[in-house]
Design goal:
The complex is a heterodimer. Chain A is an alpha+beta fold. Helices cover 41% and strands 17% of the residues of chain A. Classes of the chains: A alpha+beta, B alpha/beta.
Chain lengths: 499, 255
Amino acid sequence: MKIDSQEFLSCAVWIRNGEAVPLAEIPQYSPIDFRQNCLYLAHSGSRLAALCSFPGFSRTKEAKTILAVFADDAGSKVGLLFSVLGGNNSYPSLSLDLPQAQNFERELFEEHGIIPEGHPWLKPLRRKMDSYPFFRVEGEGIHEVAVGPVHAGIIEPGHFRFQCYGEMIHYLEIQLGYQHRGAESLFLRSSPERRLVIAESIAGDTAVGHALAYCMGIEALSDCDPPFYAHLVRGAALELERLANHTGDLGALCGDAGYLPGASWFGRIRGEFLNMLMELSGNRFGRSLIRPGGVRFGFSSSQIKDFLIRLEKIEQDLKETADLTFNTPTVYSRFEETGILTNETADTLGMVGPAARASGCDRDVRRDHPFGIFRFVQIPAAFVDSGDVMARALLRWLEIQRSLRFLREQLNGLPETALQVEIRSSRSDYAAVSMVEGWRGEIFHLAVTSSKGEIAGYKIVDPSFHNWFGLAAALRGSQISDFPLCNKSFNFSYAGHDL
Amino acid sequence: MFDLLKTRLHQGYRTSDFPKGEVHLPERFRGKPVLDPSRCQEGCSSCRDICPTQAITLNPLKLDLGACLFCPLCQEKCPDKAIAFTSDYRLAVRSRNDLMVSGEELRLASEMDDKMLRVFGRSLKLRQVCAGGCSGCEAELAAAGNVIFDLSRFGIQFVASPRHADGIVVTGPVTNNMETALRKTYEAVPSPKIVIAVGACAVSGGPFAGAEDSQDGVPKDIPVDLYIPGCPPHPLTILDGLLRLLGRLEEKRDS
């Protein structure tokens, strides 16, 4: 067991996932000491979960603040620390020593005018779409390929700029931001009912995950705990969401490898999970199921009986499709050693979720920072080492099997009890951290209340915000024709990144 | 090879017989809402006050399906049961005004005029443009093409280039950053062309209505031929809307 040094503990205020802390307890540092402490935490094994700024968070009105949240995965806790910046709104950048911070610092610069001095890559993140300064490789035989924002399939927009030598990708730069809707600022101006539907729409394929993170935050602020049964229904919905998406991804990977039986069957089975979510919640993506204090619907006894039979059948169908797919030479020769993301790169970039686990990074919020039902029942975390498309496909298949087992065990014989508790008003001047292992990885929400107990600041970090750079890194030296398959194997969210 | 054939037999034939046969959607599925303004108490505004997207107006009670996210809040809050969501999945209409519901009636989409039908009636190629969509509507559009719903058996396909398309399907509230790309894609489609708005975001902005970085749906100067509301609409809602537009549903022909 890891024993934390006093020095480590004193850098930040530490809380558990789904807890709230009075703002006054968060330690404040000068910009230089803030940087030192952040680097110390990172080098002691913590991961940067968020770096953000809240207007009005500082104890002086005008000055801008930066707040860092570090996740100590081994110790199941998160640490918060902050700094109030001087008149020039700048602080020494973390990115050179801590690449995990690079996207966050670009965001701070763009949205809040905070200058991370010495940032090596201070490019626009979601704005100035027309004047984006692309990196360019020059020389004989080098050519540039530009793709997007409108793509050839039914997918979200983003722009990919390849610097190629023949078929080989020297360098890929991904320009995102097309999906920027202004969700976070709208969030602050909205009613609680509206906030929940915005959370559900951060990434529509992760409606359950983001709704859960939002509700956990509200529950932490008001110090309420939903009934055990509600935790179970939430967990089941979260796993159904994971199952639907992982299965759909396996189908899409088959499609990109030209293996149509897999594409058709996985695609069909994906719908079975969505239909179960619809039977539970009235919506194929589980919208309106989760609400602050609990859930709106539970499983009826006839549903449980029916689902158990269907899940058994689905498991068989999935198994034979997976066996066939992974044993088909045209598939595995396409998947193996394509788009390798090394463990070191994934770790350096602070990647999360299946994309990280397929490169051997052993992190899973369900285990490391257990929430809801996962405090009582564990799903063993899966990971694969090879970091290629095959690893990402296999990892999904492993997670599918484990989630199916979890669902079948949990659905068995639990009587329905209360669905929700009444939510009290939020405590004033508190910050609440809630993290959920969505199917793409760590969903992070941070809510800060004002002295009146109203939500005064809200930060959402979708797993894709940590992860997109990993795709660009994995493609260096690859064939450009492998791009669609690689992109699909990661399947990051554009909307979640751009909010 | 033997394993493949065996699995193929075991997986079976799964395509639904839609539009023939009955559609069974689960009890909790929230489709077309039915309103009964005569039940409203004087001075009651519970439904309007709770609606996350301000889709409800009072005196008389009206619900804008274009903004409705089909969450059950209004139904739950109404003390007089004046609003109820039914399991009717048919929701697509031809004009924005038709999305304003005040009773039981919803004027479902009529077919295109004969001239357009001659061009598109038996083969419709569409280009999808996601302009801030959260991937919910995109997922359901993709699902409409899977082996269950199998859009292509009706001659409808999503194509890779606007130059190959007869129209565009827009999802999302149209972010400021996507507006140019959306317009360019629309212009690149050869005329005559159609525009289909799918989901609450594309119709009204949905959960993002009023957000400063997006535009409350398809810009007013791009004429929309078919509105498919929902958050997101069920694949059958999408399929039903497209087939109505193409005059391919028999019940429509009879009426």
